[in-house]
What does this fold into?
Amino acid sequence: MKRRIFFFLLLVTCLPIFSQNIDGVYKCKEFSDKIVISGNKLYLLTKVSEHSPMWFETDTLANCTIERIDKNLLLLNSDDSKLYDTWYVDQSKENRSDDSIRVNFIFPYDWGDLEIHAYVSGYNKMICNKNGEKTLMMPKCDKYVYPIKEFDFSIRPTEYFAIHRLGNSYARLYIDLLELNSLKRLKVEEGVNRIDINIPAIDNWFFARYHVIDEFAYIKGNKIHWKGFVYKKE
It folds into this structure.
């Protein structure tokens, strides 16, 4: 009987925490930014101006999932499902005589230069995709590994142009295979001399959006406190 009473009181205590509806639009007084909450998703939106730099042409600075910790705390993480669910690798054999592996990086980003690094044991190859160049050639054999059986890579902007919040940047600084592939290197299939790495989520705004990892937002009444700013519900 006591156990039933305990669980009943626990349910009554916790029910208001998780039944409170926080869906809605919250505006920041200092900026034109606003937070939109719908279900377990939080979006940080900004006003797009014709005078803004080109990387401000997106109105969505953050796309996060929400975990309700308690009545006042929200745990936020960037929703990267599109990134992880849509990237894929094709390996094939081209009819050419040179003893190398052609690695093509395929993604929509075309605003500026990106550093693309490929790592194979002690071998490091880097290109900047000027004029849309996103291909590098790796030798099939080197003095460390014969033949090459695996490699990894990283992609980053050549300059950190994604500046928001009076000079503060919360953008993603790079993306690499270890993040995409659960800390595993990419296996090179036997006889392959061409690898196409498709990452459609890397668009022109990918490195400008906020990269949110285990951040807390505080909510009380009709206000949300996040990153030092207050957003009031409309």
The first helix runs from residue 2 to 19. Helices lie at 2-19, 81-86, 177-180.
